[in-house]
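ARCHIVE CARD
CATEGORY: sequence design from structure
SOURCE FIELD: tokenized fold
FIELD CONTENT:
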């Protein structure tokens, strides 16, 4: 079970002062008051436009980034303040599949070493021989041939490299996997194969997924529940069928209205928003979405709506939903 709250960092901001451009560091709240729980065995989706804080959330959960405040609860333990060796059991239980398999695999390592290294580090295998046997079995399970174990990452296609990334994640027998846009860098024909593989593996090994994507058709296919993020905050969260059949938040409706459909009813009526996504350095007052929302009122400009449960398991942060 995971609960996650917030992450901040710094960005360079350039402004004009006395006729000169000056650069200054400004705090950016990449993720604000984000809180959600992932149940054992479920696939929880995080969706939203690029830059909305999905990947920052994922990297903070796996502790590649440190949280400024908030908690990350895993099996009743707050792991957000653990350091170095204290984190080892967590790092074994929680693994990540990255968006770009090319840059997440060491080009100087043979595939068998990429997969065996975490096994030996976390003592999943007692010897190098056992690790090699496990590695070859894993390669077969993800759809590669054992004789490909001696090759290097550049000798594989994009889809095959993602299979290697999945095998590396499985090597330490994780209970929870964070998949950060795992298919968005792949050809459409390969995407379905990788998604089917990920779902089969989930059924076989029983782990949970945090699945990050901006492709809503992928999310609809793979997720049980999902949260919609905008400017580092959750706008709407709930069961997949509830959100796809009855999206309530204006931003969710805007996102869904942009999904192209061929020969099918659109998910929601076409909707237009005004303006651009504001900079996370200068977050808007009130509702973060008010500058683009066609239903914004005066209240929206000064008061930030809290995420409220409007029906069982369906949460919305909007003043219109009371
Ligand atoms: Fe739009 Fe106001 Fe709802 Fe924000 S709170 S989504 S601005 S109606």
């Amino acid at each position: 079970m995971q609960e996650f709250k917030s992450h901040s960092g710094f960005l360079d901001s350039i402004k004009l002062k006395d006729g000169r451009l000056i650069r200054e560091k400004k705090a950016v709240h990449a993720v604000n008051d984000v809180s959600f729980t992932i149940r054992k065995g479920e696939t929880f989706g995080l969706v939203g436009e690029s830059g909305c804080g999905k990947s920052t959330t994922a990297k903070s959960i796996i502790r590649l980034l440190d949280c400024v405040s908030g908690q990350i609860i895993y099996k009743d333990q707050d792991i957000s303040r653990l350091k170095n060796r204290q984190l080892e059991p967590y790092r074994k239980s929680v693994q990540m599949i990255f968006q770009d398999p090319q840059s997440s695999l060491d080009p100087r390592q043979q595939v068998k070493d990429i997969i065996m290294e975490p096994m030996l580090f976390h003592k999943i295998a007692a010897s190098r021989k056992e690790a090699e046997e496990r590695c070859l079995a894993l390669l077969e399970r993800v759809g590669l041939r054992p004789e490909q174990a001696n090759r290097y990452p550049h000798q594989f296609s994009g889809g095959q490299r993602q299979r290697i990334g999945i095998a590396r994640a499985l090597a330490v027998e994780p209970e929870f996997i964070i998949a950060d846009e795992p298919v968005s860098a792949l050809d459409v024909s390969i995407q379905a194969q990788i998604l089917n593989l990920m779902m089969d593996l989930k059924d076989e090994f029983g782990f949970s997924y945090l699945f990050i994507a901006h492709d809503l058709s992928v999310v609809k296919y793979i997720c049980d529940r999902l949260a919609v993020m905008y400017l580092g905050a959750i706008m709407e969260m709930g069961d997949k069928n509830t959100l796809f059949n009855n999206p309530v938040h204006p931003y969710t409706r805007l996102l869904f209205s942009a999904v192209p459909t061929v020969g099918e009813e659109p998910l929601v009526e076409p909707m237009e928003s005004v303006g651009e996504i504001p900079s996370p350095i200068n977050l808007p007052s009130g509702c973060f979405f008010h500058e683009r929302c066609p239903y914004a009122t005066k209240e929206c400009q000064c008061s930030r709506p809290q995420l409220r449960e409007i029906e069982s398991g369906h949460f919305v942060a909007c003043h219109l939903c009371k």
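CARD ANNOTATION: The chain has a mean pLDDT of 88. The chain is about 30% helix and 20% strand.
SHELF: design records, drawer C
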